[in-house]
């Protein structure tokens, strides 16, 4: 039995900015347009937000029960101990006056006076393909990006650009239905781009005039959802941001949108009414031996096509799923490492480190791991189709930045790059005041 022990994925340096490249540009519909003329995702979906900055790692965990225990320990403490457990930063202390996050309804009084129960933790996307739990309290989060919480609902999809590492280090763009934190496992984090600018799936986050231009070129309606699907299928990493070439071929566009919708369905795990990712019988991963309470590091049995977590065994697991990387880091190693690293791992302060956290493997994690293996297997199997599509796009006629500028699509107006206001929506401000946003 050949077993490979986890050693952590390889990383690389941060990427550059997102400014528009300059240089000589081909004309509209030119074949083999240069990289300088290739639109960025920011050209197509102008509004974006930076990744969340928690400021204190203890507010997020793979289990909601752990977060509740941390909160209770914090609010039971007092004086210097409580301040040390809280973990003050330049942006947040126990005396900070902040507004509530949209939706969850956490407190707005100064945290130094807080003694009540923990707000119900909410699901949040933590980097690639990992969903963890977060205490949704603005008083505990340095940069929560309320504009994202305001539009997070059952109609929304979030596109997350992956920080540039190097070609071949994994997907350039990921999509999910859960509010993401934008964390990147390696390299510089990218931007978070919601598909819609308002709740309820209203006002697509698309450069004004873009879908109308594409509809004229392809001879049929082009929706925001189709544009996002195309981006997921064709996006490639670039030091200047996530690059999304636009084909001038209607047939190639249709093929790319079909593939992109498949990828979004897998990545979002059947959100918005779709079916969850499934492998055909005989290839579905099963638990052959239960994962123990303290499984230790992940290992892979190549001969048996199995994941090993201590005495736990899950198979069949394709090698491509085990090796699937984002940002140059193996997803399965990262996911399992966050759950097996031990109590309070990675925390130098906070109620998690002080309390020691119950670090036992939880039963629900096994089910989540089986689903993650399925997701990575399906994405790995789609990679040859993506490679072939990108090659055909690169060899064909393209709609570049020059044509978009001549059509008035670029540059996008400043208002399209800012969050939309929700004029009839009241949110609780500091100390119980109300604000109109």
Low-pLDDT residue spans: 7-28
Structural class, from secondary structure content? alpha+beta
Rounded radius of gyration (Å) = 23 Å
Total number of strands: 19
- Estimate what percentage of residues fall within beta strands: 5-15%
Mean pLDDT over the full residue set = 87
Strand order of the largest sheet: 1-12-13-14-11
Largest sheet: 5 strands, antiparallel
Number of domains: 1
Question: How would you describe this protein?
Answer:
The structure is a single chain. The protein has one domain (31-436). It is built from 12 helices and 19 strands. It has helices spanning 41-44, 64-76, 79-86, 146-151, 210-218, 224-234, 250-267, 319-323, 331-340, 351-355, 363-395, 401-406, and strands spanning 3-5, 60-61, 122-125, 131-134, 158-161, 173-176, 192-194, 196-198, 202-204, 246-247, 286-289, 298-301, 306-309, 312-315, 325-326, 329-330, 398-399, 426-428, 434-436. Strand 18 and strand 19 form a beta hairpin. It has a 5-stranded antiparallel beta sheet, covered by helices on one side. The chain has a 3-stranded antiparallel beta sheet with strand order 2-4-3, covered by helices on one side. It has a 3-stranded antiparallel beta sheet with strand order 6-5-7, with helices on one face. The protein is 29% helix and 14% strand. The chain is an alpha+beta fold and 437 residues long.
